[in-house]
């Protein structure tokens, strides 16, 4: 058989010939081999029988493709931007908050971002993993009625989805969109905080804590080795905005002071959310109490005087002693907690003891402030459930240790060097207490 073209190309001979009646005379399928110029026929080989794999994720099983079963999200789902699940939620697993999907209230979605409906459905399925505390009817009611709580919780949910599928742009867009709406509502509530009713105060305090979860989450992921490199940490940065992610945390303490009239009801509300209705009083409410005693080594190393203020006093002074003492008191309590739990509220309480003055010391890379914050990061590394700050804690804990090591603190003369050597040993042991 020959082919010609309008451009009078040289006539080309096909590398193989096909007889028109060949296939009709053969009882079974045969395949033409295209290797080389000589054509030949070979038998079609049937696919070897195999058993079906039923342990992959839902998306891979539906498409009947092999799943590498990497958790929390397989590579195929990451590449295609899907939410990876290894089991479908049962109808009985859907809580009462599922009614949120049909309640007609304002719940906008970001253009080109993950829809609010998808965020709410993800919150229904993964509530304990996202918030690290149980569902609460009071909180569900606040979610439905309060714009600040709703946008704040959806921002955390979007952050969690982005954490599971870090390469999906839609999740990042939704996270920034919900966070911006939450911050607008947060600023509006701050402007009228003295006239808020009890529910408004609860919504404000609760949202302030959750917004810090979003702020602490790294923009990258645990799959990005460059983001987890200690040398990429703010510790080694010269940017003037390197601590902007701490802005919300620095405002927690003044917020709590300004709402001191509602302190008792706020403690009961947070206790109900984080520990259930039967545990309104718990030991962590006394975190930062001046009556608690610091480890003698810490007091000597940081040259802290004996406290002379009454228990619970929160007087604003410029004393470096006070700036350091309050976070250290919380660390004294935190290191006694069982490593099995995430202790979300305990971590938020540490944030409430770190104010703008401490942040200034961090910005100036004061070795005492760096040790305190790095030690807290080390304790956070012990709490396996703290997804929202695990990557930052691991990275910055190592970064601060490298920085402190570069200062040669243990080589300082006399007692100061000996104390710093002991403090660095405690720092190294923080994740393993």
TrEMBL record:
Instruction: Say yes or no: keyword Nucleus present.
Output: yes
User: SUPFAM superfamilies, from UniProt?
Assistant: Zn2/Cys6 DNA-binding domain
Q: Which Pfam families match?
A: Zn_clus
Q: Which PROSITE patterns match?
A: ZN2_CY6_FUNGAL_1, ZN2_CY6_FUNGAL_2
Transmembrane annotation, as ranges:
none
Q: Report the protein name in the record.
A: Zn(2)-C6 fungal-type domain-containing protein
Record carries keyword Nucleus: yes
Q: What is the lineage of its organism?
A: Eukaryota, Fungi, Dikarya, Ascomycota, Pezizomycotina
């Amino acid at each position: 058989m020959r082919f010609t073209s309008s451009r009078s190309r040289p006539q080309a001979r096909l590398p193989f010939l096909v007889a028109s009646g060949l296939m009709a005379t053969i009882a079974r399928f045969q395949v033409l081999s295209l290797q080389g110029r000589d054509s030949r026929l070979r038998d079609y080989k049937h696919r070897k029988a195999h058993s079906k794999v039923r342990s992959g994720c839902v998306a891979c099983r539906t498409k009947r493709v092999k799943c590498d079963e990497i958790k929390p999200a397989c590579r195929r789902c990451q590449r295609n931007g899907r939410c990876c699940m290894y089991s479908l939620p049962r109808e009985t697993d859907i809580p009462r908050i599922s009614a949120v999907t049909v309640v007609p209230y304002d719940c906008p979605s970001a253009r080109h971002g993950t829809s609010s409906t998808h965020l709410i459905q993800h919150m229904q399925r993964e509530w304990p993993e996202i918030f690290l505390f149980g569902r609460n009817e009071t909180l569900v009611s606040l979610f439905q009625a309060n714009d600040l709580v709703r946008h704040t919780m959806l921002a955390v949910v979007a952050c969690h989805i982005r954490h599971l599928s870090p390469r999906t742009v839609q999740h990042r867009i939704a996270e920034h969109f919900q966070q911006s709406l939450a911050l607008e509502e947060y600023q509006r509530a701050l402007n009228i905080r003295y006239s808020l009713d009890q529910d408004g105060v609860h919504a404000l305090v609760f949202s302030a804590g959750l917004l810090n979860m979003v702020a602490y989450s790294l923009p990258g992921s645990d799959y990005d080795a460059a983001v987890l490199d200690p040398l990429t940490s703010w510790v080694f940065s010269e940017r003037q905005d390197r601590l902007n992610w701490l802005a919300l945390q620095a405002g927690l303490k003044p917020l709590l002071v300004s709402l001191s009239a509602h302190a008792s009801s706020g403690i009961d509300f947070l206790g109900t959310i984080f520990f259930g209705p039967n545990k309104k009083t718990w030991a962590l409410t006394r975190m930062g109490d001046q009556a608690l005693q610091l480890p003698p080594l810490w007091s000597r190393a940081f040259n802290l005087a004996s406290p002379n203020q009454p228990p619970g006093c929160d007087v604003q002074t410029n004393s470096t002693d006070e700036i350091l003492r309050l976070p250290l008191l919380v660390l004294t309590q935190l290191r006694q907690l069982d490593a099995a739990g995430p202790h979300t509220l305990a971590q938020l309480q540490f944030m409430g003891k770190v104010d703008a003055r401490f942040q200034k010391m961090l910005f100036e890379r004061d070795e005492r402030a760096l040790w305190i914050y790095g030690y807290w990061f080390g304790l956070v590394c012990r709490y396996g459930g703290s997804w929202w700050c695990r990557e930052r804690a691991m990275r910055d804990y190592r970064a601060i240790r490298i920085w402190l090591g570069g200062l040669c603190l243990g080589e300082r003369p006399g007692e100061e060097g000996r104390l710093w050597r002991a403090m660095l040993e405690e720092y190294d042991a923080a994740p393993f207490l």
